[in-house]
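pipeline/complex-builder :: batch 7 item 3
reading input block
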Amino acid sequence: MAEVQFRFRADEPVADPAVTVDAFGDQTNAAAVRLEPGDDARDLLPHLERLQLVEVNFPVFGDGRGYSSARILREAGYSGELRAVGEVLVDQIAAMRRCGFDAFAPDLPLDPGDAEAAFSRFTQVYQPAADGHAPIWQLRHG
Amino acid sequence: MYKYDTYDQQQVNARVEEFRDQVRRRLEGHITEDQFKPLRLMNGLYLQLHAYMLRVAVPYGTLSGAQMRMLGHIADKYDRGYGHFTTRQNIQYNWIKLEDAPDILADLASVEMHAIQTSGNCIRNTTSDQYAGAVADEVVDPRPYAELIRQWSTFHPEFSFLPRKFKMAVIASDTDRAAMRLHDIGIRIVRNEAGELGAAFYVGGGMGRTPMIAPCIREWVPIDQMITYSEACLRVYNRYGRRDNKYKARIKILVHELGKDEYARQVEEEFAHLLTLSIEPPLAELERIKAQFADPPFESGLSDDLDRSDPDFALWIDANCLPHKRPGYIAATISLKPVGGIPGDASADQIRLMGDLAERYSFDECRVTHAQNVVLPHVRKADLFALWQQLDAAGLATANLDQIGDIIACPGLDYCSLANARSIPVAQKISQRLAGKARDIGELKLKISGCINACGHHHAGHIGILGVDKKGVENYQLLLGGCEGADTSLGQITGPGFDEDGIVDAVETATGVYLSNRQGTERFIDTYRRIGMAPFKEAIYG
Amino acid sequence: MKILTGNDLKTGAVTWWDGVQWSLHVEDAVDVGEHADTILAREQATRRVNAAYAIEAVKDEDGVRPAHIKDRIRALGPTVRPDLTLKPADPAAGNWVI
């Protein structure tokens, strides 16, 4: 289990182990679930209230389905921890953050300096996403 | 044309610094090649046959004189004195050093250019009609919409690791001059009976191993929902496009396997959801962009006459020039296909000259076409002769637009590590063999790909050639009857392949069959469609 | 014979393993026999080369001849621009590729 290296939340992380989507459906007291790339994030929508942690797995960094899963959950109003796990590389974390991830537990720890640079590199964004950052067109036109 | 504001400039500047840092980390060994590769691809940097190759984005093919001059400068300073214009309106440099790449991107950024997302599994350069703003048959200039799409797709955080590359094209006329239906998403801007603008979406076209013509997924999307609908199309693809097999990973496979109705239904669902989130740029943003594509200050009362007394000039006018929407003006195509030359290549001097000529004669604007030529869209007829003389002196006045000498060819095995066969020598030989008959043959779009990836668009050629590897020896298949445009069709293979001399002979034979059988003003493609494959097959294989 | 080829990491130039380092000239390529994988792994990690791989080749009167036309083009340069190849003055260089 990789450690959470970056977390942008004030609350305490849940201690529950993240169960699979299938198991989660059966265990009515589970609060943490793990989404694989092939899972449908919308299967979780009926359970958002009891969910405190969603881990989204990136088994290979090139599989970008987790970015959609994250946004979908945030768009549905999920406000718990959204944690990127797996092959999470420093050059992806900024985009992941934009998609709604607020915690990162990469298999291989990232260089903190590189991560900081990555998070702060782009101060403006062209399109709205799950981070609420005003897109450039909004700054242009108010 | 579009000019960056401080936000746009900030984005490309940040990207340059990001890439500079990524290159440093690669050279210092902090990241592996496997980790670095997608990052450099997303900045257009390939590792190719002879060196790194950089693909610079030319959004919807449009360039200013200053930008062309910078492209020439880059060719001289960082490369070996030339560049290659591509079938997606971009430019490529073949001899780039990794250690120079960040500086090149910085130079590009200084003239509002970049190499962002010209490779990688992300949304690529959005292409458009090379005559946008100059032709009478467009509903509107499609390029502001392409610019909206460019900004929306740049650094899109959800769509940077798609199953595969994603290519979009936008047109705004019935005549499709951008091969729109052979794209992952093709958009045609249309007007309804109420005079409102909307977008017709065609999704799932493409060439490569399994060429497909994009079906229409939605005939009408209100123009102020175009980005939201695009986002829905992409999200469905990102979630459900195949990731198990690289050769089945394009959206065309998804649309084909789901069926267009089911794909459209899934998009509709996502679209309804996304509409509740207000992700569409406001109309004010479209208007802001449109204002930068307003007509240049055309003069009125200009003469529409042309002095055709020079026979070479007259030939060039007839072959390469297109009537303009404004009297007294004309759109001129600079051919980058000299007889026996390398299709799409231009020297640094030629690139700089084209920039100067664009500035002087075309309101500082030129367009790269997906046929690997360059258009000066707004030339005063009064200036055309002087322009032609300067082009002629620089070897840029070949009068062969859309003729058999106007060959579209990928770089092929001379340059590309994906290729199975060389394409350029075949192009050169055909060009030389048929130079004398080219004018008589008339319109014939010949397209050559050096491998099944079809970067030469051979499926869409009236005559198409596909290079293959036959037991380590180069071999060439001949296809007939492909066509872009509103009547898009895919070429059919004639039969067994040929060696290099054989394919040149076969092409010549095919043109002979056409010349013997044509009726009236039939073009090659018309005669082929009328008489079918059989007479060609008979003549070629005996 | 089995030879190793790749691209210089910094410049992208095509290189060939000569037993000690990476040469720009295919004539310098040596037979690595069964040691290809070991050498490749080590060299990729040292970053003296990028994306290197092993290929078959023969030694003939012209020197070292890669088995596949693609690698022969890599060895020489683009056949359509003799001036940009390693042998610009040799009119027969393109024939060697084929």
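note: Residues 408-541 of chain B form a domain with the Sulfite Reductase Hemoprotein; domain 1 fold (CATH 3.30.413.10).
queue -> next item
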